[in-house]
Each structure stands twice: as structure tokens, then as C-alpha cells.
Design a protein that fits this description.
single chain, 410 residues, mainly alpha, 24 helices, 2 strands, ARM-like, ARM-type_fold
């Protein structure tokens, strides 16, 4: 093969069917990776270039080729092929300072490739055995580049589920427990939430916190590791950064921010699940309460898990934060829920479950308001509500007291 053919082979790694003859397709099948149209030869050439980073300048051409390989790693057949050619060892060498030369873009690509590979359990099992790669990855927590940190946190998130996976067996602690137990991740995440203006990075942190806060291993509640004064403060700052231009009269701007809001409320709910977390939330009750109030002011048809978590958090904060407008709003929502009970034309079991859970959380909130708020203040707030909403409030209190009396009698 002459130089011209090699160059053509390097750049046309994924030719379209329209560009080749039928007989050429037959030849390509022998060079294809699994069921893909990606060329084994081209991928191997790129792997060789990774091994030569020590004495090679990372230019635009290399960036395009490395990014192409990064894109390919979403394919399982490509992942399997790369693992056969010791990709983790190659990435370990590429992460050495003398190879990446403090180039943030190159570091981002390398970590992104490893992150995609780690979407597959066998890769994560192999990664756990390779301290030559694990330690450099943990070391990158000190990196200040938002794009590098985003890919690194996504990689860690892929590995987090192995902390509780029954299929991943090991007598030694998972490598991810080190930076968690030491507080390294907590300090970094709190700093990011408090200071970063990068939406993608903040969302990656919230997603990781959401996952970790739901994990419990050997009676170890990981949410307690992340619930610190700095983290609670960072959660409020992170929210304001993401939603500074959002109007609560509207729905969340897009799916990404809707997901971030869900992660935010779920993480705080996990923090509130233990006494230390609740005390920290009380100390930041006003700031958290204002945010939760804006979430509760979304359109009345916004019945979702975010609103349920929001109402639960508002109830937890009732002794340090109460706003009459929240009660008025939730009574409006409760009234809509009661009205919807008679409309079953297009209901679904999932919607019914959400409605029931939201109704229960609002009724529980009303009961806490009744117990925590002075009667003159409560009467003043209710005097500004419609008669129907006032009756609904007192009906809720009466029903709850009846239920509690029945439980005590039993």
C-alpha cells in the first residue's frame, strides 16, 4: 500500500455504502469491527498514534481523529475490539503528564473515551484492577478545566453503581470509595456548585450526587458523606446559576434542566433523611425555602416527582421557613387533584400514582402547618383564600386527625 492509499485509509474510516462498489463492500467486511462499518486497520492506526504522544504534537488533525475514536466507543463491538488491544493500558500511558503535556482538550478526550468504555461492566471490572489508570484519574480531580471535570465525573458516575452491584464481587473496597471517604469528592463538588458557571458541569455533579445519595452499602448511607455545610450552600448557589433566568410561572426551560431540578430535590431529600442533614438544612432554611417556593409556583398541571419532593422538603423546613403564599398555592393544587379524581377518561396508572403521592404530601404539609403555625397567622392566611380552599384545608386536618385517632385506637 503506497502513501496515498494509507492517507486515504486513515481519513475515510467510515465510508458510506453509496461511495463504494458492491465488490468493495465484500472486501471491507473483512476489515470491519463486528457488525459496524468501522475499519479495524484505521482504529489500530489511531491507537498507535496514542502511544506516540510523548514525541508528537497534538494538532488539529490528531484532535479530529481522536474525537472520531471517542465517538466510536458508544458501539459495543468497538469497545470489545479495543479491549482486545489493551486500550486501558494505552489510555494509562496517554494520561501521563509527559504525553498529555497539560493539554486540556487532549485530557478531556482521553477521559471521555475511558468514560464511554466504562459504560460496559467488564471494562469497569478490568479498570478496578489497574491502579496505573485509576490513580491518574483520581488525580485529575485537581484539574481546573470544566470540560475535563465533566467527563471525569461522568466516568465516576458510570462506576458508582458497582458499589452496590451484586454481579461485581470483590473482597477489597471499591476504588471509588477512597475519594468519597476522604471527602475529596465532596469538597470538589461543593466548590463546583458554588463557583462554576458551566451548566454541563453543574448538571453532571447533580446527577452524580443524585445517584450516590440513593446508594447504601453495608448500612453505609453515602449521602452522609456529601452532606456538609459547604455542600448545602453550594446546592443553593448551583440552583441559582442554572435557573437565574427561569420564571416559575413557566415550566422548566428544557429536559436537561428538568432533570437537574429532579436531581437537586432528590439529593436534598436524601440529605434530610438523617438528623445531621436536617440540621444543616435548617441553618440554610430561608435560602432553600425561597427556591422550593419558586418550584411550587410552577403551572398547576405540573404534577411530577419534582413537586412531590418539593412539598416534602417544605414540610421538613416548616419550623424554620413558612410562607403563606406556599400554603395558598398548594391548596390550589390540592383542589385540582380533587377535581381530577372524577375525570378518569385519559388517566394512566402512573399519573394516578403521582396524583395520589402528591395529594398525600400536600395533606401532610397542611397538617404540619396546622401544628407549627400560630392560629392568628393561619386564620389571616386562610382569610385570603377562596371558601372552597379553606374548606379543603380544614377537611384535610379533620381527616388526618381521624386517621391518627384510629391508628392509636388500633
Amino acid at each position: 500500500m503506497d502513501a496515498e492509499e494509507v492517507q486515504k485509509d486513515e481519513h475515510n474510516f467510515n465510508p458510506s455504502v453509496e461511495d463504494v462498489e458492491v465488490e468493495d463492500l465484500e472486501k471491507m467486511k473483512g476489515d470491519a469491527i463486528g457488525n459496524t462499518m468501522y475499519s479495524e486497520r484505521w482504529v489500530l492506526q489511531i491507537l498507535i498514534k496514542f502511544t506516540k504522544l510523548f514525541d508528537t504534537d497534538f494538532d488539529d488533525e490528531l484532535e479530529v481523529e481522536f474525537c472520531s475514536l471517542w465517538d466510536m466507543t458508544v458501539e459495543k463491538d468497538v469497545v470489545d475490539f479495543l479491549m482486545k488491544h489493551d486500550i486501558l493500558a494505552i489510555m494509562s500511558c496517554a494520561l501521563r503528564p509527559l504525553c498529555r503535556k497539560d493539554n486540556s482538550r487532549l485530557t478531556e478526550i482521553i477521559v471521555g473515551i475511558v468514560g464511554n468504555l466504562c459504560c460496559h461492566e467488564p471494562v469497569r471490572v478490568e479498570l478496578a484492577k489497574r491502579t496505573d489508570l485509576v490513580f491518574p484519574l483520581i488525580g485529575l480531580l485537581e484539574d481546573s478545566d470544566p470540560s475535563v471535570l465533566t467527563q471525569l465525573i461522568r466516568l465516576f458516575h458510570c462506576c458508582a453503581w458497582d458499589l452496590v452491584s451484586e454481579s461485581v464481587t470483590s473482597t477489597s473496597p471499591h476504588w471509588l470509595e477512597g475519594p468519597i471517604n476522604s471527602g475529596q469528592l465532596t469538597n470538589l463538588f461543593a466548590f463546583i456548585l458554588k463557583s462554576s458557571t458551566n451548566e454541563e458541569l453543574i448538571c453532571a455533579v447533580l446527577e452524580f450526587l443524585n445517584t450516590m445519595s440513593s446508594l447504601e452499602v453495608n448500612d453505609k448511607d453515602f449521602s452522609q458523606y456529601f452532606c456538609t455545610p459547604e455542600m448545602i450552600s453550594g446546592m443553593t448557589d448551583g440552583w441559582h446559576q442554572l435557573f437565574n433566568s427561569w420564571s416559575p410561572e413557566d415550566e422548566f426551560p428544557n429536559k436537561v434542566l428538568t432533570k437537574a431540578a429532579a436531581h437537586w430535590t432528590t439529593t436534598l431529600s436524601a440529605f434530610a433523611g438523617h438528623e445531621g442533614g436536617r440540621e444543616l438544612m435548617y441553618e440554610n432554611g430561608t435560602d432553600l425555602g425561597h427556591i422550593l417556593m419558586t418550584i411550587a409556583r410552577r403551572p398547576l398541571e405540573s404534577v411530577d416527582a419534582i413537586l412531590i419532593s418539593t412539598v416534602t422538603l417544605l414540610e421538613i423546613l416548616i419550623k424554620v421557613y413558612f410562607n403563606g403564599s406556599v400554603l395558598k398555592r398548594l391548596l390550589e393544587v390540592l383542589n385540582v387533584l380533587y377535581q381530577n379524581q372524577g375525570d378518569v377518561s385519559d388517566s394512566t396508572s402512573n399519573a394516578d400514582n403521582l396524583d395520589a403521592a402528591l395529594q398525600d404530601s400536600i395533606e401532610s404539609y397542611c397538617t404540619s402547618v396546622f401544628l407549627a403555625v400560630s392560629r392568628p397567622t393561619l386564620n389571616y392566611i386562610l382569610s385570603d383564600c377562596s371558601e372552597n380552599h379553606v374548606l379543603l384545608f380544614w377537611k384535610t386536618i379533620s381527616d388526618r386527625q381521624t386517621e391518627e385517632s384510629g391508628e392509636r385506637a388500633i
